[in-house]
Amino acid sequence: MAVKPVLILTAAFGEGHNAAARNLAAALGEAGVKASVHDIFDEAYGPLNQAVKHVYLFVINHIPALWSAIFFLLDRTAVVGGGIGVFGRAARLLARRIAELRPDAIVSTYPGYGHLMDLIRRRGEAGDAELVTIVTDSLTVNSVWYRCSCDHFLVANPETAQVMREAGVSGEKIHVTGFPVPLVFSEPPPVRSAPPYEVLFMVNSSHHLAPAVVGKILEIDGIRLTVTVGRDAELGRALEKLSSPAGTPPEIHGWTPEIPHLIRRSHVLISKAGGATVQEALAARTPMIITQIVPGQEEGNARLLIESGAGELAASPQAIGEAVRQMFADGGRLYHERLAATGPLSRPDASREAARLLTRLRP
Fold first, then answer.
1. Are 298 and 352 within one domain?
2. Does residue 1 form part of some domain?
């Protein structure tokens, strides 16, 4: 019978965790399974958690060497498992949520919850629910993800499954379901006619470089450019003033829930190597030009794209512009090579596959 209900645990330290939780909940709901999504750390610590999140985002975007050292420390030591007791308030709140919801399965999209579950299991407060962890990174998987007593791991691709097996995780616990992406990716893809080629530039941390990047792309003939700027309205207004030599301005979006549709209609995506972004691009079979790689967790995402031929790295405005130019030169020869490379990595129905696995866990 179906698993009812499911408790999904997430954390706002990177959009990939929230995206995986949100998309899995949608697939479970479609299947008639009740899913409750909770950010226990935010619920337990509120403003303090928000402050820590802002520090984390500042460090990964502006002091990457420091984050690289922290990632290494977390990976090579037992600091998380040994220090999880300091999160007593979060542990008590999680135990209370489990008692209230009485879930048949608990799904974590954030590595800290495995260790928090170990703590409340030792206290006898976890019930008999199985813990399922969705690993939101590829290839470079920090051991914090699996250095706990998790029952099942859902991973994005066979390559990541192999990395975890080599690290000592039992193969029986590992399931290749894909990264849970929005359900719209499983619909028939839109027709991408060209030229003009649709280019989507999702501006992330390097907002100061965005005008130069847009300027370089607009110099290229046969391109229709769309740019998302999130909540940076000032940047949006600045970019609206730019145009191609033919007078064509870019299409500018602020914060929008239409990102999946924009990715699906585009021939190429320009963005950082975030877990959700990379997997959504692959689900849409949209090759990527990677502009930024956060040390540690995003290195594997970038390797997955680059080594498969589905993407490339270009960090400066000049390099990004040239990468776009080469992508569509010679009738789009390189674009079609990149497009073909996305095929083996594309799992547009991953959310439903994960939901189906959850419904099979318990008799």
1. no
2. no
Same structural domain, 198 and 160: no
Assign 44 to helix, strand or coil. Answer: helix
Kindly state the tokens that stand for 354: 């994960």
* pLDDT reported for residue 4: 67
Q: Which has the closest alpha carbon to 89: 50, 44, 121?
A: 44
The answer to whether residue 267 is domain-embedded is yes
Whether residues 146 and 22 fall in one domain: yes
Please state the domain count of the chain.
2
* Dihedral sign computed on CA atoms, order 229, 235, 237, 243: negative
Which two structure tokens, joined as six digits, stand for 186?
């499983």
| Domain boundaries, position 246 | 185-345
In a domain, 137, yes or no: yes
Cα–Cα distance between 300 and 316 in angstroms, integer?
A: 21
The DSSP call for residue 9 is: E
Measure CA 91 to chain center: 26
Residue 264 lies in a domain: yes
| 135 shares a domain with 27 | yes
Residue (of 287, 285, 262) closest to 202 by Cα position:
262
pLDDT given for residue 362 in this prediction:
56
Given a contact cutoff of 8 angstroms between Cβ atoms, the answer to whether 87 and 118 are in contact is no
Q: What is the pLDDT of residue 2?
A: 46
For the question of whether the overall pTM of this predicted structure is more than 0.85, the answer is yes
Strand partners of residue 251: 226
pLDDT averaged per 10 residues, the chain (length 363) = 78 92 97 95 96 93 93 92 90 95 94 94 86 96 95 97 97 97 95 92 89 95 95 92 86 94 98 96 98 94 97 96 97 96 97 94 59
Which CATH number do you get for residue 218? 3.40.50.2000
**Looking at the DSSP assignment, which residues form a beta bridge with residue 202?**
228
pLDDT number for residue 348: 98
Here the tokens at position 168 are 């000592």
The span from the CA of 119 to the CA of 35, in Å, is 23
